[in-house]
Specification:
This protein is α/β, with parallel strands linked by helices. The chain has three domains: 99 residues, NadA-like (Rossmann fold, 3-Layer(aba) Sandwich), CATH 3.40.50.10800; 110 residues, 3-Layer(aba) Sandwich (Rossmann fold); 85 residues, NadA-like (Rossmann fold), CATH 3.40.50.10800. 42% of the residues lie in helices and 16% in strands. A five-stranded parallel sheet has the order 7-6-8-10-9, sandwiched between helices. It has a four-stranded mixed sheet with strand order 1-4-5-15. It has a four-stranded parallel sheet with strand order 12-11-13-14, sandwiched between helices. Helix 4 links the parallel strand 4 and strand 5. The longest helix is centred in the C-terminal third of the chain and has 18 residues. The protein is globular, with a radius of gyration of 21 Å.
Length: 354
């Protein structure tokens, strides 16, 4: 394919000036030429260790923003398609988060801490940094919630209600301990003294999975193991055998014995790539449902080639991802809090450690 040939040639020409991180949900033709592949958290860690002049991010906008937050002073973050967004990230604004936190704090007897899922815009991460809160990921949400709840603090969790509810239920909280926020009035619809308050947001891709699909595959494939992403609704999560982040799913399936049979409830491009990689080991890997993220699919080889050509020519204005300095500083506080809680370590960012 001529486009791929030109991409490979340009990559050689640009050398170490450019790195290409790609999210697991990208099409195989993109992941095949990426320098590293991962979920949003894994990519943030990997990007933070690079010294490349250009970070050509193949994912969606909030992920590229995250890379820009962590980028060193000399680095530029670019995307092949700036229109690649995330519906869930768009489901809450800074003003809504601010008013909701104030409303809950006015009623609750506990101190309330905002916790934002990694799948959110930089400004919402900055909001948490301004209010002594934290970022979390699907793999460490439990540790983050347990940290605050163990201090008898409450949590405002956003934007994904399902990750928040599934995590709270894993910890052992009752439904009375969990209260969903009404997006019109910006107040809890349930218990005003709940321990976890959930913003009513969700990932459209993961809402396509349901219990009926699991039951159908169990009848067809006795002994099948069902693993889902924790952005699915609680009924689907409970019906599955396992749940975890995209990185967790990848690691579990890749280490499973030959001949094992899996049904995976997450984005189809990722499931398809796993099936391709492990067919030779006799593994059967099936999608719970063919659910494709159209935003992830906006990154194409043609646009990737165009971006590499613009980097070569020094003309990247219409591909550049930037984050205001104050937002970057506050977002880093929330990211640092996450790392301190989970790992007690640092991520390397611009102007020192994060």
């Amino acid at each position: 394919m001529e486009t791929m040939r030109r991409i490979i040639s340009l990559r050689k020409e640009l050398g170490e000036r450019v790195i290409i991180p790609a999210h697991h949900y990208q099409k195989k033709e993109i992941t095949d030429i990426a320098d590293f592949i991962g979920d949003s958290y894994r990519l943030a860690v990997d990007v933070s260790t690079s010294n490349a002049e250009y970070i050509l991010f193949c994912g969606v906008h909030f992920m590229a923003e995250g890379a820009a937050v962590l980028a060193k002073a000399h680095q530029k973050v670019v995307m092949p398609n700036l229109k690649a967004g995330c519906p869930m990230a768009d489901m809450i604004t800074y003003a809504q988060a601010e008013q909701t936190l104030e409303n809950i704090r006015n009623k609750s007897s506990r101190e309330i801490i905002p916790v934002v899922y990694m799948n959110a815009h930089a400004r919402l991460k900055a909001f948490c940094g301004q209010h002594e809160g934290s970022v979390c990921t699907s793999s460490n949400a439990r540790k983050i919630l347990e940290y605050y709840l163990s201090q008898d603090k409450g949590v405002l969790f956003f934007p994904d209600q399902h990750l928040g509810r599934n995590t709270a239920m894993d910890i052992g909280l009752s439904q009375d301990d969990i209260s969903l926020i009404d997006k019109e009035s910006l107040v809890p619809m349930g218990n005003q003294q709940a321990k976890v308050f959930l913003w009513d947001g969700s990932c459209p891709i993961h809402q396509e999975f349901n219990v009926r699909q699991i039951e159908t595959l169990r009848r067809k494939y006795p002994g099948i193991t069902v693993i889902v992403h924790p952005e699915v609704n609680s009924a689907t999560a409970l019906a599955a055998d396992m749940k975890g982040s995209t990185e967790y799913i990848y690691n579990v399936v890749s280490k499973s014995p030959p001949g094992s049979v899996w049904a995976i409830g997450t984005e189809y491009n990722f499931v398809s790539r796993l099936a391709y990689e492990y067919t030779s080991q006799g593994k059967t890997i099936l999608p719970l449902e063919t659910s494709i993220c159209t935003d992830m699919s906006m990154t194409t080889p043609e646009l990737l080639l165009e971006t590499l050509e613009q980097i070569r020519d020094g003309n990247i204005k219409n591909k550049l991802v930037t984050v205001d300095q104050k937002i970057r500083e506050d977002a880093k506080k929330a990211l640092q809090q996450m790392i301190a809680i989970v790992e007690g370590g640092t991520l390397h960012g611009n102007r020192g450690n994060l």
